[in-house]
Structure formats: structure tokens, C-alpha cells
Amino acid sequence: MKKGAFMVGVYEILRQDFAAASAAFDDTDYHDMNICANRLMANVIFGDEHDAKYLVPGFFLRIIASDFLALKDDVVAKTVRQQAERFVKEIDLAFNEELDLKIIWNGFFEYMERKRELLMSPAERRAYKSNKAFTARGLSYLSSKFFSNPFLSGPDAILLRAFIIEADRLIRNHGAEQKELVLFSLIKSLDWLDRYVAVAFSDAEKSGNIEGLKIDVDPYIKRIQIWYSGSESHPYPDATGILCDILLKWRKYYLRYLERSKLSPDEERRVELPGQVRERIGETIVQALQKDVGEKGLKRKKG
Q: What distances in angstroms separate CA 61 from CA 114, 217, 289, one per listed residue?
């Protein structure tokens, strides 16, 4: 079968996936948008791996959906949505058989900068000035720690999550240059992969094949390290290639483990107890402490 004829069929399916995700966005159904973005990336596997670039639209659609699923303030969400609408239109414009990386990355950079400005609190807006050099300094420090001990999902492995939390904070407060935003995207994709690596790690511990798992994951981390130490310019084809390879690996892990991966902080939901229940628990704890203190006092007197 000719490559071109095969990929036309796959491309048409991917465009339908994109249309479904875009329609969900129009309906403010960000949960469905997230599903359709995942579906787009999953369907790329059935095409030609050399055309894995089609993963990029799905990746950024999921980033947008995740952002809005995490926003709890409707007023803020409506404000940020204007910029998100522009980004979705730019992804649509770039999503041709010959994917235009320049348009997509430019759209992402603008979206991140405008989102940062819109999400700052009044106090933060008064206090913080754009300082992208400081963000670059912070991410350089975080990267050095991460790259020196990169393996992700050991029993106590929290470095990747700490990297993402701190990088997100730096970007939101101080802004970021393009290179740091690309790095952040690569680390985000690694985090998605790590959800499945955590499950695979448990299997590898049982089989004694931890080193085999490292060999399976470490090359992506090494490639990110080499890329970050270099000076690739826009539209970042090498970084995009790394991103797509990580996403392909992530989707293939899905075929093995389905949804048995770790939940992200956005997906986890803390159980909230009713106020009266919290009060009763608090009273019980106080009473127990008072009883404990009283019993210790009596023992000291008897002694």
C-alpha cells in the first residue's frame, strides 16, 4: 500500500477527531474535548510513525482542555477563553497534511503569555514584573537536578512532579522565553508517560527487570537533556520530534495498561467532609488529647 494513499485516510480521521474536540470546546464541554484530543493522538498510532507530527494538535488541545478543567472561577475562565479560542483557530489553520509547526508553536507561546497575565491575582499583578531570565535560571537549576537523577517512577520518585510544579509557578509569576516553554511541554509529556511507567515499574519490580524499564524510558530524557543544552531555533523541529516520540510511547503504554495509570493532580479529587462532621472529628480529637494529657498528669503524680 502506498504511504500517501494510506495516510490520506488516517489524516481524514484525525481531522474528524479535531473537529469533534473543537466542537466540544465550542460547547464548553472540556471533559469531552479532552477525550477527543486523546482520541486524535490514539488514532495516530494506526498511521505511519514517520508522520507522528499529527500528535502535536492533539497534545495542545489536551493542554487547553486541562487548563479549563482546572479553572474554578467562571469569570476568569471566560476571560482566558478568548485567548484559547484564538489558539484553537491557529491549531486548525496549521493542521494540514503538511503540519505548520511555526503557527502552532507561536500560538502556544502567545496563549501561555496571555494566560499568565490573565490568571495573576491583583496583588501578583502589582508586585511581579516580567523576568523571563529568572525563569530560565530556575528551569536550568531544576533541569540539572532532574537530568542528574532522571529515572521517574521509583517508590519515592517525586522529582518530575516537583519540576512541573516549580516550573509552572515560575512561568506564571515571571513569564518565560520560548525555549523554556518548549522544555515545559516536553516535561509535561514525560509526566503523562510516567503515569504508565509507574504501573510498569511495579511489574518490573516483581520480575526484576528494572534496568529494562530504564532502557525503555531513559533515551527520551537524554534527548531532552541534549536538546536543552543546544540552541535550536523556532519552529523547533527536533524538540517536536522528541515530543511526538514520547507521546507515541505514552499511547502504546495505554494499549498495555489502559487507564490503570496514576491520576494527575487535576484529575484527583480531595474528599470534602461536611462541616458538622469536621467539627465532630475536631471535638473528638480535642477530647482524646485532653484525656491523654490528664492520664499522663496522673501517672506523674503517682510516680
A: 17, 25, 51
> Residue 69, exposed/middle/buried by CB under 10 A (0-12, 13-18, 19+)?
middle
CB 163 within 8 A of CB 142: yes
51 and 7 in contact (C-beta within 8 Å)? Answer: yes
Percentage of the chain exceeding pLDDT 90: 59
**Location of C-alpha cell 502535536:** 56
Helix intervals (H) in the chain: 3-26, 30-44, 55-70, 74-94, 101-119, 122-127, 132-148, 159-174, 178-207, 210-229, 237-257, 275-302
Cell (9 digits) for 36: 477527543
Is residue 49 within 8 A of residue 41, CB to CB? The reply is no
Grid coordinates given for 248: 507515541
Amino acid 149: pLDDT: 73
Alpha carbon distance 188, 2 (integer Å): 35
Q: How many CB atoms lie within 10 A of CB 81?
A: 18
Identify which of 116, 236, 141 has the alpha carbon closest to the alpha carbon of residue 182. 236
Residue 28 backbone zone (phi > 0: left; psi -120 to 50: alpha; other: beta): left
Q: Residue 8: what pLDDT?
A: 53
Question: Three-state SS for 100?
Answer: coil
pTM of this structure:
0.79
Distance, in Å, from the CA atom of 150 to the CA atom of 152, rounded to the nearest integer, reads 6
For 146, residues 6+ apart whose C-beta sits below 8 A from its C-beta are: 159, 160, 163, 221
- The C-alpha cell at 154 is 521509583
